[in-house]
# Entry
Amino acid sequence: MIQDQTEEVFVSQEAVKLQEGYIKAGVVGVKWQTDALHVALATIADCRLIVSWNFKHIVRFDKIGLYNAINVVNGYRTIGIHAPPEVINEHDE
# Structure
């Protein structure tokens, strides 16, 4: 059984700095800064992974490595980024 382990996360200067790092590195453009903030907040909160349907700016093979490269350069752990079908086991009840 999966337990509800939610944590409220607030936008901090630390998250904004990491978000800016993603944008500066060209992972996403300024127009998609909320997607970069999503990854930054999850990274800062030390999440193990992001599960998302956002295939345009987050769940993309070429972008996942870039997000994680910026994370490592800035002293953070890498984060798994996956689509829901990759992490949901339909046989579990």
